[in-house]
Amino acid sequence: MKKSLLALSALVAATGALAFPDKPITLVVPFAAGGPTDKVARDFAEAMRKPLGGATVVVENVGGAGGTLGAAKVAKANPDGYTLLLFHIGMATTPGLYRKLSYSSTNDFEYLGMINDVPMTLLGRKTLPAATYPDLIKWLNDNKGKINLANAGLGSASHLCGLMFQSSIKVDMTTVPYKGTAPAMNDLLGGQVDIMCDQTTNTTGQIAAGSVQAYAVSTLKRVNTPVLGKLPTLDESGLKGFNVSIWHGLYAPKGTPQAVLDRLNTALKEALKDADFIKRQEALGAVVVTDARTTPAEHKKFVTAEIEKWGAVIKAAGQYAD
Question: Residue 270's pLDDT band (boundaries 50, 70, 90)?
Answer without folding.
Answer: very high
